[in-house]
Specification:
Blueprint lengths: L2 H20 L4 H17 L3 H24 L3 E3 L11 H11 L13 H21 L3 E3 L4 H23 L3 H4 L5
Length: 177
């Protein structure tokens, strides 16, 4: 998938899931985003490798978001499927981010420090944007510590996703259009 379309469909999926969560209508946004993710994996040059990356990103995201939520720094509006876990729309967003590793973020391959810095800044900003749109709120534990924890999580996540992928650089670079 071309970098441009990967970026556009990532943004569309992000907005759909966040707005769906804000309005407690996550079924269709999640299903639509999962359909794109399935299409992305199917069109991948190496679907098995891509699915492995997506699954690892899913587990990483569920564990880290659930931990930050259980520590009291995040409160998601939609608790489905369980009030003890982060919500399914967040799971979908973690997998959606992983689709950018061989797409719109492929330029970060081989640049783990840049990926860590970008993740540490853009990750928490994305949560803040979702919170401002009504999809959740900072927990009673505090916004500043929550923001720092998310920065650490995302500063690790982006380089880790590239490490897990290990697609040769020639295959990981996708045409712009």
């Amino acid at each position: 998938m071309a970098k441009f379309w990967n970026f556009v469909l990532f943004q569309a999926g992000w907005f759909a899931c966040v707005l769906g969560a804000a309005n407690q209508q996550v079924l269709w946004p999640v299903l639509g985003t999962l359909a794109y993710i399935a299409f992305h994996a199917w069109r991948s040059p190496s679907p098995k490798t891509e699915l492995s990356l997506l699954f690892k990103a899913l587990i990483f995201g569920v564990v880290t978001d659930t931990l930050i939520m259980r520590l009291g720094y995040l409160d998601f509006r939609d608790g489905w499927p369980s009030p003890f876990l982060s919500p399914i729309w967040m799971w979908t967003l973690w997998v959606l981010v992983a689709t950018t590793i061989n797409g719109s973020l492929s330029w970060l391959r081989g640049r783990p420090i840049v990926g860590a810095v970008l993740g540490a800044i853009a990750g928490p900003m994305s949560y803040e944007a979702g919170i401002r749109m009504g999809a959740g709120e900072w927990g009673p534990g505090g916004q500043i510590i929550g923001f720092i924890l998310l920065g650490l999580v995302w500063g690790v996540a982006i380089p880790l996703f590239f490490y897990w992928d290990r697609t040769p650089i020639e295959q990981g670079l996708v045409k712009n259009l």
